[in-house]
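User: Design a sequence. Structure:
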């Protein structure tokens, strides 16, 4: 698309792509890029000095963004108290009826939560939800006894899960370009700290975080100064 190419070229020519910026300056650079026709998602990307093939060097976690992610989240809840779950913000809730609906192929939602007691029945839909990354999982905080509180947190868009890929990279949503600089900075600092805290104990003799950058959906990446994450 010509307009997209022109916008990206303008962005690339407006800053030093090899420079590594302090956090405040990186956010300023991002804010000055030409805007797309929608509110772009802002993402933090990190390249880690770990070996993804080693089971003791896996990196994943959950972080609560202080200013939310700006994303609207559609949630379903596998639980007995469907009315309470819907009142908390679930688009669908229940057990047998919801399981049957999913088995018929319905997956028009972003997150599924379940109580521990419900998981025996929920495993019936694992073949539908698993390949789509929608299966409730204790590690992601979506298997919980406090379904209502979890739904409310997820609806706010504040809870974000991150997981390293096979090339030792992580991408984490940190907000929208419509956020002000302070909101983005608070979210970024929170995510950087969260990634730092899950440094694998099996990582020895090498740097954990090798590089970080921020970008919008339709922008180039802006590299961050290593001093921001050096302590990790």
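Assistant: Done.
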């Amino acid at each position: 698309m010509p307009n997209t190419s022109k916008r990206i070229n303008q962005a690339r020519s407006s800053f030093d792509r090899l420079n590594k910026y302090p956090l405040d300056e990186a956010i300023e650079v991002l804010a000055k890029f030409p805007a797309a026709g929608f509110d772009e998602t802002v993402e933090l990307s990190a390249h880690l000095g770990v070996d993804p093939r080693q089971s003791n060097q896996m990196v994943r976690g959950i972080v609560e963004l202080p200013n939310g992610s700006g994303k609207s989240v559609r949630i379903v809840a596998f639980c007995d108290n469907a009315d309470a779950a819907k009142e908390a913000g679930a688009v669908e809730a229940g057990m047998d009826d919801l399981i049957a609906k999913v088995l018929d192929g319905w997956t028009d939602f972003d997150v599924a939560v379940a109580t521990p007691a419900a998981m025996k029945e929920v495993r019936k839909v694992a073949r539908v939800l698993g390949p789509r990354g929608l299966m409730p999982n204790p590690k992601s905080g979506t298997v919980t006894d406090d379904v209502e509180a979890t739904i409310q947190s997820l609806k706010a868009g504040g809870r974000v899960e991150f997981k390293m890929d096979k090339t030792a990279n992580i991408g984490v949503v940190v907000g929208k370009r419509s956020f002000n600089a302070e909101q983005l900075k608070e979210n970024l600092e929170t995510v950087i700290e969260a990634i730092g805290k899950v440094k694998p104990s099996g990582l020895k003799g090498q740097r954990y975080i090798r590089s970080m950058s921020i970008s919008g959906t339709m922008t180039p990446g802006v590299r961050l100064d290593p001093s921001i994450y050096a302590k990790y």
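The beta strands are 41-48, 60-64, 75-78, 92-94, 111-114, 159-163, 169-176, 209-216, 222-223. DSSP finds eight helices and nine strands in the chain.
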